[in-house]
Specification:
By secondary structure, the protein is mainly β. It contains 4 helices and 13 strands. It is globular and about 45 Å long. It starts with 7 loop residues before the first strand and ends with a helix.
């Protein structure tokens, strides 16, 4: 489980096509603290570490294998060498739950519709599929590229959030552009509430 609080920005440094696709990601995490088999959320997609090491520039790295299903249902299939991604290591018992409960399972690939300055923040507007939009509520939580965000408003299949300067600085959001595709994970509680409502009808 994750909280949607990003703790590093990684960089894709190698992509190897095999039966699955192996992605090698540079990180500021100490590779000695990353166990093989551990989970790391990569722009909101929970992936399993299969290799670790250290680069000549002092940074660490880890490698993950992405299946065809993962590539098809997330933005991972569009990643290339140099792609910057949001990273979060899994929640430990006793850790502060600073965001909301996130599983790292991508529900939809959304799109940034617009980015508009608003005070010191940036106001982002996203578009998702109608099937996913029904789970998104004003003042509720949503995970976008692994970042826990609070929804301002919802209009049809579009919704808006504000991203403060700190978040822009410590995640990939400071470099985002309109038209970019993003990984979307809806709030876990919203999913179960909706399912319970359907069974009672």
């Amino acid at each position: 489980m994750f909280t949607g609080i990003i703790t590093d920005i990684g960089e894709v440094i190698a992509i190897e096509k095999r039966g699955d696709t192996r992605l090698t990601i540079a990180t500021n995490y100490d590779p000695d603290t990353i166990a093989l088999g551990a989970s790391i959320a990569c722009s909101g997609c929970c992936l399993t570490v299969v290799e670790t090491g250290r680069l000549q520039d002092g940074r660490g790295f880890f490698a993950v294998d992405a299946s065809a299903e993962t590539l098809a249902r997330s933005t991972l299939g569009a990643w290339g060498i140099g792609t910057r991604i949001n990273l979060e290591r899994p929640l430990k018992i006793g850790d502060e739950l600073g965001g909301h409960v996130v599983s790292g399972h991508v529900d939809d690939v959304g799109e940034i519709v617009s980015i508009v300055p608003e005070g010191d923040s940036l106001r982002f507007r996203f578009r998702v599929s109608p099937e996913i939009a029904r789970f998104i509520a004003p003042k509720g939580s949503v995970s976008i590229d692994g970042t826990s965000l609070t929804v301002n408003e919802v209009e049809g299949s579009e919704f808006g959030v504000n991203i403060i300067p700190h978040t822009q600085a410590v995640t990939t959001w400071g470099k985002a552009e309109a038209g970019d595709q993003v990984n979307v994970e809806i709030d876990m509680l919203a999913r179960y509430v909706a399912r319970l409502s359907e069974t009672r009808q």
